[in-house]
Structure formats: structure tokens, C-alpha cells
Amino acid sequence: MDKLLIVKNLRTYFKTFKGLVKSVDGVDFSLERGETLGIVGESGGGKSVTGFSIIKLIEEPGEIVNGQIIFEGEDLVNKSEKQMEKIRGKEISMIFQDPMTALNPILSIRKQIDEALQLHTTLGKGERLKTSIELLRSVGIPNPEVRIESFPHELSGGMRQRVIIAIAIATNPKLIIADEPTTALDVTIQAQILKLMKEVIIKNNNSLILITHNLAVVSQMTDKVMVMYCGKVMEQADTETIIHSSSHPYTRGLLSSIPRFRSNHKKLDTIEGIVPNMYNLPKGCYFAPRCKYRRSICETEQPSMRETSKGHFVYCHFPLTDGDN
């Protein structure tokens, strides 16, 4: 398959008064055309910063200090802001997690979709209006001819998120980055939005990076998964392998903490401890203080990324096997 995106040794750091925060610390992955990647992990793991780094929306005091972001054969790290403005929204779109703050509250839906079309297409005014209405219809908004004149506050959270998806796909981008796209929505609407996103991706053959803390969502939506913790990639493989044959203790912990319907009402499993302070990370493996499998080397030396099977990478001194509990 043809590689659309290749990220090599990406490092995005934030220089603060308290010290250096290594939000993304040596991340590597690639994405094929039409492929979907899920990036999962707890809050503060570097998932969103990875997404924002790809489209170079890192503001002071943050900075991409090293690495390559090769999109369609060109390194985005070397692109100027003016060059990136032509790529954002046209070649790469982003769906943000809060639909209320992602939309401009003083502009109608029509004007906000039109802005993207005007900036990135050569369509005339009438054609843009027609396209905007069809976009709203394609994401399941009823009476799009009427709704297009609405303002964000006049729409429900689910409708606003549908509008954001419509804007994201307006120029048929090659890559869509969705940052917790259903966090602010209730469970029923979440299912509708995820189903819609999957249909849109398949129909338009877009590539998708889905950033979420929800492994249940990832299992239904993605081709492969990257698990992050404290800026590091802990494990990476195809979705089937991650869900059924994960090797990193952190991934196993995330999977075991997913609520399940059980007849015996077994107590929910949790990962002991808390995420370490990003200003003062452990000397060895960042997950070692919370890992029940840790040994002395885990507390003193960082592991290396190893390929345990084809396409299955694990950042661990002692990767688990199927027999380990």
C-alpha cells in the first residue's frame, strides 16, 4: 500500500517555568491511504499533542524540537506557516472534541462551511451554497436548506458535531484527525456520530487518525492502534492484535478496566497508582511505578522498542505473552 503519512522520531516539548515537559517523546508511526489509526491512552499521554503536531498547531511555549512528519512525500516540519495554511483544511482536516468551541458562535453555519470552500476551492458563490447544503445532508442533518442559516447555539451538541464533520470533509481531505470527537456527547449520539464518521471515511477513502481514551471505540473504528503513555508509544499493532494479544502491561491494564456486563458483578479492574508528574518522570520505564510485572532494570533503564511479531511493536523490557495474567 502507498504511505500517506510517515512520522519519524517526533518530539514536541513545552518549556515551562516548572521545567521541560516532553509531551511527545520519540513517536514513530505510518499511515496508509484509506487506513484508520487509533491513538489511545490516559489524559496527558501525548495523544492530542501528536495530532496537533502533525498539522503544526503547536503554540508557545511548545515546539517541535525534532523529527519528521512526511505527508505525501514532503516533510511538514520544514513548511512555513503560510504553506501550512494551504494544507490545513484542504489536505488535512481536524475534528475537535468540543463542538461548541470549535465553531464560531457569531457566524451562521452557512458562512462557516462557505469559508472552507472559498479558501480551498474555486467554486462560485451559488455552487458553494449548493455544496454546503449537500454536505449537511450527507452528515444526516434534516432540512439542511433551513438549518444552514442557523447559528451554533441553535443546534444540539450532536448537530454541531455533524456540522464540524461536514466542514472537515468539505474539501475531501486525504487525512482527517479526530481528537476525542464524541467526548461532549451522550452515549446515544456518540454511537450515531461514530457510525457517521465510519461511513464518511469508507465512502471518501479518507485516512483517519482517531484520538481517544476509549478502547471500545477503537476496536470498532480502526485498522491499527498506537497506545501512548507519558509521551511514549508503549505498544503499536493492528487492532485485532492489540485487543486480543496485547503484550504491554499498560495496554493489558487499559483493556481490563473496560466495563463489561457480567452476571457475577465482578469488581472493575483498575491500574494501580497515578500517571507520574511530567516534570519529574521516572528514570527507567515511565510505567514501572504502576506495573505489577516490574523488575529492577525497569526502574533504572528505559526499554527499547522491539518488534515481537510482524508489525507488533512493544516498548517493554519483558513483553507479556498470551499466558501471562
Q: How do the strands and helices of this protein lay out in sequence?
A:
Layout: E1 3-15, E2 20-32, E3 36-40, H1 47-54, E4 62-71, E5 74-75, H2 81-87, E6 92-95, H3 99-102, H4 109-120, H5 125-138, H6 144-147, H7 157-169, E7 175-179, H8 187-204, E8 207-211, H9 215-221, E9 224-229, E10 232-238, H10 239-245, H11 249-256, H12 296-300, E11 305-309, E12 312-315
Parallel strand pairs: 3-8, 3-9, 6-7, 7-8
Antiparallel strand pairs: 1-2, 1-4, 4-5, 9-10, 10-12, 11-12
* CATH topology-level fold name of the largest domain: Rossmann fold
* 3D shape: globular
β content, as a range?
15-25%
Helical fraction equals: 25-40%
Q: What top-tier CATH class of the largest domain fits best? A: Alpha Beta
Q: What would you note in describing this structure?
A:
The chain is of the alpha/beta class and 325 residues long. It folds into two domains: 3-91 and 173-315, P-loop containing nucleotide triphosphate hydrolases (Rossmann fold); 92-172, no CATH class. Helix content is 33%, strand content 24%. It has twelve helices and twelve strands. The protein has helices at residues 47-54, 81-87, 99-102, 109-120, 125-138, 144-147, 157-169, 187-204, 215-221, 239-245, 249-256, 296-300, and strands spanning 3-15, 20-32, 36-40, 62-71, 74-75, 92-95, 175-179, 207-211, 224-229, 232-238, 305-309, 312-315. The strands form two sheets. It has an eight-stranded mixed beta sheet, sandwiched between helices. The protein has a four-stranded antiparallel beta sheet with strand order 2-1-4-5, covered by helices on one side. Helix 4 (109-120) crosses helix 5 (125-138), helix 5 (125-138) packs across helix 7 and helix 7 packs parallel to helix 8. The protein is globular and about 70 Å long. The two termini are 36 Å apart. The model has no long low-confidence stretch (mean pLDDT 91).
